[in-house]
Each structure stands twice: as structure tokens, then as C-alpha cells.
Amino acid sequence: SSLRVVYAFAREMHPKTSDVFIQYGTAGFRTKANLLEHVVYRMGLLAVIRSRVKNGRTIGMMITASHNLEPDNGVKLVDPDGEMLEQSWEEIATRLANVSDNDLESTTAEIIKQVNADMSLKASVFIGMDTRYTSPRLAAAASNGVIALKGTPKEFGIVTTPMLHYCVKCRNDNTYGTPTEEGYYEKIVGAFKNIRQKLPVYGEYNTTLYVDGANGVGGKKLNIIKKSLDGELDLHLYNLGGNGGKLNLNCGADFVKVSQKPPVGVEHVPFQRVASLDGDGDRIVYYYVDDKDNMILLDGDRIATLLASYVTELLKSADATDLKLGLVQTAYANGASTRYITEELKVPVSCVKTGVKHLHHAALSFDIGIYFEANGHGTVVYSEKAKKAINNISKDGEPEQRKAAQLLLNFIDMTNETVGDAISDLFLVETILCAKGINVKQWLQTYTDLPNRQLKVTVKDRNAISTTDAERRCTSPEGLQTRIDEIVSTYKSGRSFVRPSGTEDVVRVYAEADTQESADKLAAEVARAVF
Ligand code: NG1
Ligand code: ZN
């Protein structure tokens, strides 16, 4: 059959060259780029099958390893609504990625049968990639996989991960926007400009923003956006990939958050706020350097609380307080942020397992759900009920209510609801700082972070550790949690947990305490207990 030819082609063009077992984890498949070509090809096949199971709706494929260094790469699938691949398919993806070339044909046939795909339907797959030099070759392998099963690939070239999610969503739901990079700019940047007309710059806010682009795709796209801004925001862009700057190396959101150090390649002016993006543009943290060269970090928790406080204000002004606002965090959220949200903002918080799909899912249970990982990955999701109610108020409310509801509508347009998005989040943050007329020091004053430390420990088998209670406690190996409890009890305001990473072969240790010295010591002690 013609499929025979397809599998023969796979063996020749994208042969499986490694026997290392590879697993579809929190962020898809991620490893050294040279081990990935056959995996990406096979995900092209799977994307076609997935598209047919979804009645021909478009599926996304993103080639990226996010905040990892240049030699890594990865691939993940995006579901029709722009969400992460449904969890039950992760196992299927893993199976297909690991079979031998000889078994590829029979395994593909088994999967088609198992998921009941009608292979006579059309199939459409959108493919995007980050700036890694290995990405074009992998994107080509993805396309070949799609074509092999007679699907239609559309390559978007270099885009941020959230742009691809956005385009997939728009392609399947044209009320959300136009499924192109230009359509993305029109919607998100358009909403930002619109809001700036209504909320002119005032108070302590100023329009100068420095950006650390991590030498990845996010900075490059902001450089395009910069040209269309008319003084609404004065972007100074650094780490755009030129001048020998290496992707994510000593720069970018993950480096800044984990090392608690400012990135290289950025010119530092005391008290100037800087936004730091990650390599594929789905994470953002803010920071500034003070007059004594200390770096002060405003992380994902800080962004989440800013969003929650502003949305609460607007809902009040719009007299739409019957809409339930909620916030979702993970165990990595700073304890001080959780306290501030519950006690000061009086917004309900839920804590879920690490991984955006868990946060996203939990956020959907609120009328308006804000979710953020401490590392800067997050967004806001609005239910149909919320959108309708706000829309009605924007038309029929009292003048003050109407004004607030119209701002909320712009706010919704500025949000990439499909997934955490550094560019969209940047515009949301800048809008709120401007609306509140505050500078970065005033933003910091809302609460004081507990000093904290993150460590990685390499162990023989990271999966020997299992966890419960949103990863805050471990259930195995036996005795470890008791030991951690003992250690933690000797620290003032101490909190610590360990969990196996879903993206690296390490165990992560997190600790917070009343001083940085104590947090560092606590993390080190717990790391020794794990080892
Ligand atoms: P792991 O490696 O499972 O800790 C990391 C991040 C997650 C998430 C994923 C996907 C931390 C502590 N963990 O997961 O939040 O962003 O990568 O990129 O930041
Ligand atoms: Zn990322």
C-alpha cells in the first residue's frame, strides 16, 4: 500500500538512531536535539491522527526547548482550543516515539484503531519553531510526518510558543481572532494601544521598559512590535540574539528566577524596571537593580497578584462582583504571595501540581481564573459567562460601570487565554502599572517575599520520590517526609518540599525561611536528606 512507502521513507529519512527511552513529559519531548529527528517525524504522524480524531480540526506542533540551552530541543503538541495535548495521549505519544523503525507501521495502525481515527478525513497541522539552529531541520521532519499520513502542514517559521497556540485556537474558532502572526499583533497590541487612549500615563509610572530577550524569539518579536508603538511604551531591547549572545545562557527568565541574579547583556540603570523573557516567549519575570547593585525580583507570583488586584478593582467598578475571581498557584509560589492574596485581596487560591496544564485546568473552574507559576508562566482565562456579563455591562451599565467594563473587554483582548504568554503578560503588567500610576518600587511594596532557594539534586532514580498534596509532601521513599518535617521545624517561617522534575533528570528542592541564609541552609539540609 502507499503507507508502506511512507514507513520505508521514515526509515531512510528520519531513522531512529538512539535506543534511549524518551518520555512525553510536562513540556512534551525534550532532550539533545540530535536525538529528536525521528521523534518529531513521528509526532507529525500523531498530529494527523489527533486532527482526524478531532474531526479535522487543526492541531499544533511547536519545536522548542524553551529555557533550556542551545544544544537541547523539543516538540510538543497543541490541542484544537490552543491547550496542551490531552493527558491521556501523552502515553500514546511516548509509545509511538519509542518503537523501532520496524514496528512503526504496525504501532501506528494499532494507535489509529485504538483512538478510532477516521483516516479518510482531512487533517491540518500548524507547525512553529523557536530560534535554535536545529529547529528548521526538526520542523521539516514534522512536516514530512504530517504529509506522510496525507495531512496538510502549515509552517509558521519562527514564532513564540504562545503565538502558535493562539493561531491554532483562532483557526478552530474564528471568533477568537485571525490565525496569523499579524493577527496576533493586531489583537494584543491593538488592545494595548486602545487601553492607553483611555488610561493616559500618570503618577509615578513611566513608559520606559528594558527587556531581556534571552537571545530567543520573544525579544525578536518585541522588536517588530516596537516599530508599531507610538510612544505608548518605550522599549529598550537587549539579548536579541546578536553580538554572540547565546540562547538562555546567563540570561532569560529562568536564569534570573533560579539564580536570583541579573542577566548578562543588559545595561543596568538603578531602579529601571526590566522584563526578562524565556527562550520561547512563554515566561516573563520583572526585576530591577537598586543603587547598591542588589537585584530585586518581581516573579510570576508578583504578576499574578498585580493582575488579581486590578481585575478585582475593575469588577467592583463595573458592579460585576457576582463573577467569581480565583487564583491558581503551585507549591513554588512564595508563601508571602499566597498570604497576601488570601488575606488582603480576599481572592480564593488553589494550589495544584507543577505543569501548566494543571494550572490551566484549575483556573477554568472560576468565572475569571488567573494562574501563574512562580517562574513567570501564566495567564488569565475568562468564562463565557464572564465575557457575556461584562459585555452587557459595557453596553447597558451606568456610565462608570460601562467605563470599567470596556476596560475589562480590552483587557480580555490583550490576554492570550490559550497559554502563558510573555508578550501578552508584558502588556497586561504595563497597563496595570500605568493605571495605578505606580513605579516598580511601589509595586514591590504590596508584600515582602520570603527569602527562598531552589536546588537540583541528581539521584539514581528520581521517580523513587512520589508526592501528594499538590507535591507539597512526599509519600516515598519511606521516612523522607518525616526527615524533612524534622529539618523544617528548626527554621523560623520554614517551608520546604522535594519533587522529581518532569523535564530534567533531577530532583528539585525548594525552601523558604525568614532570612536568605536560613533558606539556603534549609535547602542544603533537605537536599542532603534526599541524596
Ligand atoms: P519541572 O522540570 O517539572 O520542575 C519546569 C518548571 C515548571 C514548568 C515546566 C515546563 C519549575 C520549578 N518547574 O518543570 O514550572 O514550567 O518546567 O517548562 O520552574
Ligand atoms: Zn518557555
From TrEMBL:
Its cofactor is Mg(2+). GO terms for molecular function: metal ion binding; phosphoacetylglucosamine mutase activity. InterPro entries: A-D-PHexomutase_a/b/a-I, A-D-PHexomutase_a/b/a-I/II/III, A-D-PHexomutase_C, A-D-PHexomutase_C_sf, AMG1_II, AMG1_III, PAGM. Substrate binds at E373, A374, N375, R499, P500, S501, G502, T503, R508. Its EC number is 5.4.2.3. Keywords: Carbohydrate metabolism, Cell wall biogenesis/degradation, Isomerase, Magnesium, Metal-binding, Phosphoprotein. Residues 58-98, 106-169 form the Alpha-D-phosphohexomutase alpha/beta/alpha domain. It catalyses: N-acetyl-alpha-D-glucosamine 1-phosphate = N-acetyl-D-glucosamine 6-phosphate. The keyword DNA repair does not apply. One of its GO terms (biological process) is cell wall organization. The keyword Isomerase applies. Residues 484-528 form the Alpha-D-phosphohexomutase C-terminal domain. Pathway: Nucleotide-sugar biosynthesis; UDP-N-acetyl-alpha-D-glucosamine biosynthesis; N-acetyl-alpha-D-glucosamine 1-phosphate from alpha-D-glucosamine 6-phosphate (route I): step 2/2. It holds the Pfam family PGM_PMM_IV. Belongs to the phosphohexose mutase family. Catalyzes the conversion of GlcNAc-6-P into GlcNAc-1-P during the synthesis of uridine diphosphate/UDP-GlcNAc, a sugar nucleotide critical to multiple glycosylation pathways including protein N- and O-glycosylation. Catalyzes the conversion of GlcNAc-6-P into GlcNAc-1-P during the synthesis of uridine diphosphate/UDP-GlcNAc, which is a biosynthetic precursor of chitin and also supplies the amino sugars for N-linked oligosaccharides of glycoproteins. This is Phosphoacetylglucosamine mutase.
